[in-house]
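A further point concerns the way the authors explain their paired sequence and structure data. Nothing conveys this as quickly as seeing an actual entry. An entry of this sort, consisting of the sequence and the corresponding backbone structure tokens, reads as follows:
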Amino acid sequence: MFQSLSEKLENAFKKFRNKGKLTEADIKAGMREIKLALLEADVNFKVVKEFIATVSERAVGTEVLESLLPAQQIVKIVNEELTALMGGTQSKLQISSKPPTVVMMVGLQGAGKTTHAGKLAGMYKKQGKNPLLVACDIYRPAAIKQLEIVGEKLGIPVFSMGDKVSPVKIAKEGLAYAKQKGYDMVFFDTAGRLHIDEELMGELQNIKKEVEPTEILLTIDAMIGQDAVTVAKTFNELLDITGVILTKLDGDTRGGAALSVKHVTGKPIKFIGIGEKLDAIEPFHPDRMASRILGMGDVLSLIEKAEQAYDDKKAIELEKKIRESSFTLDDYLEQFAQLKSMGNLDQLMGMMPGMKPGALKDAKIDEKALAHMEAIIKSMTYYERVHPEVLNASRKKRIAAGSGTTVEEINKLLKQFDQTKKLMKQFSNPKQMSRFGRKKMKIPFN
């Protein structure tokens, strides 16, 4: 996500860092680089033009030209203007004071509307809501079945009337059913087309009139680039959308759509899709995204992901085990599973300040290696998992035979486990932590 744009902006900022005091000519040359970076990232031309004008105006002011650290001031201005460009502050989903909250999902075919209707419903179910999915797409083959599969995986019921009833009638009956059964959120999965046409928009307008949605969320595929702006503009003009969900943002290294949609439509990006899994959706925070783009990290999102993966009780137990040096191979396996549940490792590293996006694009958690690790550990006795130092040659041969692995793989696992224990012991020791800034520590990872 934004890898290409981040790299190009980083190169543009180097032009400022190599100088002490900046002149207006220096700023003009640097702004040209930033402008090219944004255009190559597929940001709308009008958006780029206005953005560069605003940044340039601030950059030639006294806060930069008379600053002791002008390069940092430029980065600060770009960060603030990027944040403003994407909406300034987070725009949350509006929850109706009189349930149910009605959310109408609209967009072109292939944007991920059906999946993201499920993802959103799943997100709010975790927050204590009682959602219902309504299948209003009767045209796309297997659309209803797809929504039912998504609903089943998430444990969320799906209301459908087959593909012979009009979508408007399905929407009307679905809303009545939700009210009758006490569902407090209803997500309508509507039909899409490969392109915007009169018939599609007329049908969506009729559904809107029938269910009076609290929110109309436009689902846009971030990978369609400049076309995202046209799609957003047209849907907004005809339906007056309330917000946008950008999907497949993890597959687009440019990210121009995210920087253009809010500016062109005036409607906020409310959520972003960052992967195929049904929990791979995040609320959109303009300030955090601007920080990610500029390589400044996104620690708040990282903490939130960690809090979702680790409950307080387990965190306290782990801390105690580390302090008492009673960290076992079972604990080691559990930590890998928890890390895996937090998502793509490269995305997580991109949230760390100073980490370049894409720096660990090849360092993925190997599903096969994780399965081998689990097989090895579960082939051990309880005593061996707690006291791996007793594992001699004959025991390792037995474990290898039982887990379908090799002695070499077992040795490699034990070495990694030992390195991790040492590292954790250093982190739990206040004296070691006080020297952390002066001593580089090797973090084992394969």
Observations:
- Residues 359-363, 430-446 have pLDDT under 50 and may be disordered.
- Residues 103 and 187 are 5 Å apart (CA to CA).
- The longest strand covers residues 101-107.
- The chain has 21 helices and eight strands.
